[in-house]
Write a structure and sequence with these properties.
Layout lengths: L8 E2 L2 H4 L4 E9 L6 H5 L16 E7 L6 H4 E7 L15 E4 L1 E2 L2 E9 L2 E10 L1 E2 L18 E4 L1 E2 L1
Antiparallel strand pairs: 1-7, 2-3, 2-5, 3-4, 4-10, 6-9, 7-8, 8-10, 8-11
Length: 154
């Protein structure tokens, strides 16, 4: 029995990111591509919808401090929520905040081009875990938003 393409595997946040994640910037809408002709015609920008959950997609750039390869340390997480998710932690540095995701899933995929391909993952989660211990690492309680990840190498 084969596992179908696009299957989402449940994974504990601490197993996927033992050193946590750092969100860089803010959560923004994940909009569909709009051509020059569409903009000139005044067509509205449409936000992407997740095919599985039917929720709106939002995205944010994150960095995995535990990743040894610099090119694979930063990637985008796509959040799934009816309203824009708000992180539960405060900024550690301007524009950077430690975050922890709840209900995390991983979807394997192939990254790279030509003969330089590698295993990577699309991460999705049900939300942010509530904020923070004194050590700067978020605590493990209630979720507030919904999240989906986009590619992190193994």
């Amino acid at each position: 029995m084969a596992i179908e393409k696009g299957h989402r595997f449940a994974i504990d946040f601490d197993d996927a990111f033992p050193q946590g994640l750092v969100m860089v910037g803010e959560v923004i809408p994940d909009n569909e591509y709009q051509s020059r002709e569409d903009r000139a015609a005044g067509r509205p920008v449409r936000q992407r919808i997740d095919e599985v959950t039917g929720k709106r997609q939002w995205r944010a750039a994150v960095t995995d401090p535990g990743e040894t390869k610099a090119k694979r340390a930063s990637f985008e997480v796509t959040f799934l929520a009816d309203v824009q998710p708000v992180p539960t932690t405060s900024e550690a540095l301007p524009g950077m905040r430690p975050v922890e995701l709840d209900g995390l899933t991983a979807e394997p995929r192939v990254g790279g081009q030509g003969e330089f391909k590698y295993q990577t993952y699309v991460f999705r989660a049900t939300g942010f875990k509530a904020a923070a211990s004194a050590a700067g690492k978020p605590s493990r309680s209630a979720g507030a938003a919904s999240a989906t990840g986009d590619s992190k190498a193994a």
